[in-house]
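Service request form, structural biology core

Requester: graduate student, group of Dr. S.
Request type: structure prediction, single chain
Budget code: on file
Notes: please return the result as structure tokens.

Sequence provided:
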Amino acid sequence: MSTEVTRRKVLAAGAVLAGSAALAAGVGGTAAAAAPSGTGERNPRVKPTVVLVHGGYADSSCWNATIGELQCKGYTTICGSNPLRGIPTDAPYIASLLDSIAGPVVLVAHSMGGTVITNAAAGKANVKALVYVAAFVPDVGETQGELITKFPGSEVGPVSVPLPYTKADGTTGTDLYLGKNGQAAFAADLSTADFQILQATQRPFDADSFTFPTTAAAWKTIPTWGLVAGRDKAVPPACERWMYSRANARKVVEVPTSSHVVMLSHPRVVADLIDDAARAVS
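Core staff response, request fulfilled:
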């Protein structure tokens, strides 16, 4: 055998060995990168998605401060844009949003949004907890109009401004806006400047929202948490306490000095309650 042939065989063998070693190192490196470090949890808890639903005289931005707190805690957050047309429109819309989310959900609502989630979450297996923030918690057959007058103390009626609007079918509906004189009744613990922004950017709700009866009560099968705004002049605090008690809320937090918009004036308290609910069902 010539020296040249022997040299070629040696080089070829070396190339094969080198390639095999590189492949082995690559596979080993990938496996090492994918393997758990041994310092974390083997099966870490999956944090639920937090879905927040606003009420009347508001839009999704009313949750901004609370979202900041929740995102610092590592939660994925989604604000459902509530149509504010009443249960027949609002509940199916939010229900479709819930259907689009993979994995567990903690569903949170403020004010009239409570009526919406009470109907929308019924039969939704991915909704693991309901959190009511100064919110309505109706039973089947009840209307918001009945609940808001069940206890004295609501002052939003006189500061609500009715304006006609044309519905899709050509009939005339009535939208309710929060008037410029509505701060004391709705947001007494916000600065005047912050209230003026809230009032200017509000979304009105259809007055018929107070007349539609609830068709389902998700709180009868889904664990519930509640927050009472102690100086609420929209939904009376006594009504909030009564509704949360009837719903067998696992935990009720009260903010004694808060107006109706507690998610704006006390976002950390709201976020902490949502976190409590999420941890309890995760």
